[in-house]
Specification:
The structure is a single chain. The protein is an alpha+beta fold and 312 residues long. Among the domains are: 18-111, Protocatechuate 3,4-Dioxygenase, subunit A, CATH 2.60.130.10; 220-305, Alpha Horseshoe (Serine Threonine Protein Phosphatase 5, Tetratricopeptide repeat), CATH 1.25.40.10. The protein has helices at 122-132, 136-149, 154-166, 170-181, 188-200, 204-217, 222-234, 238-251, 256-269, 272-285, 292-309, and strands at residues 18-25, 32-39, 49-54, 59-64, 70-74, 79-86, 93-99, 103-111. The chain has a four-stranded mixed β-sheet, with no helix packed on it. It starts with 17 loop residues before the first strand and ends with a helix.
């Protein structure tokens, strides 16, 4: 999956399917497993990969279905197998199946179609390209077309919300993000974006709640602690801001913006030495940043203040 801000967790594609199993008497003492794989419309599925994995012995046996969806496998040792059924364009299916010696067993499977892959959608690709070139309005139009075709696509909805955030259409972004949360509640990036949106609307408690939920889902993400620090800083909760920035720094010491914000926070507290220390670290990491000229002026002014206030 490809997203604008970050990669998402992969979806669990294993879903329910229907399996029917019948035991038939066998004259010869040989084990046979056979059956047919179809879709929900009873259409036979060809080239379906069926794998029998004997977890006890650590061995696997595979077979593919023919044009009429049927398969036939002879000679499987008696055991309990983990059976995996996979076909392009369908959700894979897993089940356990006991194979008994000297029996002919019939196991039929019904697979469920998977939705189209959003990364293959031409409008989705166009939206990503437009976003990367800074054409946010074009990106919005492209992602909206994708969402119309794939309304449950997490990536398309998320990217559309991010575009709205960058266009400062915060309410539209929130509506989409809340919609996503109604059916997907375990993706930290959604809460991060929602926290940013509420932060832009000065809804502090909602922003904090969103960031804290992201923190629960991904406790080692420095961006979450950085964003929390920004909220605390804006609301004059300076000690909490410093604690959050310090946590982010411990997780990623090369995250330059942390030092910039720490410098400003210590400046507000009147701790000039620590303000200078962090601002200098920011310049060390980002000497060509757009804030660099201003930061150098601040450091120069702070040195004067610090020297003037220092005891003789």
């Amino acid at each position: 999956m490809r997203l604008i801000r970050t990669r998402l967790l992969k979806k669990n594609l294993i879903t329910s399917a229907i399996i029917s199993c019948v035991f038939l008497p066998l004259l010869a003492q040989e084990t046979i497993i056979k059956g047919q794989v179809t879709d929900k419309e009873n259409k036979p599925l060809a080239d379906v990969q069926i794998t029998f994995h004997d977890l006890t012995r650590g061995i696997k046996f595979s077979v593919k279905t023919k044009k009429d969806g049927t398969y036939f496998k002879i000679g499987l040792p008696p055991s309990t197998y983990k059976v995996t059924v996979k076909a392009e364009g369908y959700f894979p299916f897993e089940t356990n199946l006991s194979i008994e010696f000297g029996r002919e067993q019939i196991a039929n499977f019904i697979l469920e179609k998977s939705p189209p892959k959003v990364e293959d959608d031409p409008d989705f690709k166009e939206g990503l390209k437009a976003f990367e070139t800074g054409d946010l309005e074009a990106a919005v139009a492209a992602f909206k077309r994708t969402v119309e075709r794939l309304p449950q696509s997490l990536e398309a909805n998320y990217n559309l919300a991010i575009c709205y955030l960058r266009l400062e259409k915060t309410v539209e972004a929130i509506n989409i993000l809340e919609k996503i949360l109604s059916w997907k509640k375990d993706v930290p990036e959604i809460y991060l974006a929602l926290g940013e949106a509420y932060f832009n609307l000065a809804e502090t408690e909602k922003a904090l709640s969103s960031f804290h939920r992201a923190q629960e889902l991904q406790p080692d993400n420095p961006r979450i602690y950085y964003d929390l620090g920004l909220i605390y800083y804006k609301n004059e909760r300076l000690d909490e801001a410093i604690a959050s920035f310090d946590k982010a720094k411990s997780l990623n010491p090369e995250f330059s913006s942390i030092y910039y914000q720490l410098g400003l926070t210590f400046l507000k507290k009147g701790d000039y030495p620590k303000a200078i220390e962090n601002l200098e670290k920011f310049l060390q990491l980002e000497p060509e940043a757009k804030e660099a000229p201003q930061v150098r002026l601040i450091i120069e002014e702070l040195r004067k203040r610090y020297s003037d206030s220092a005891p003789a």
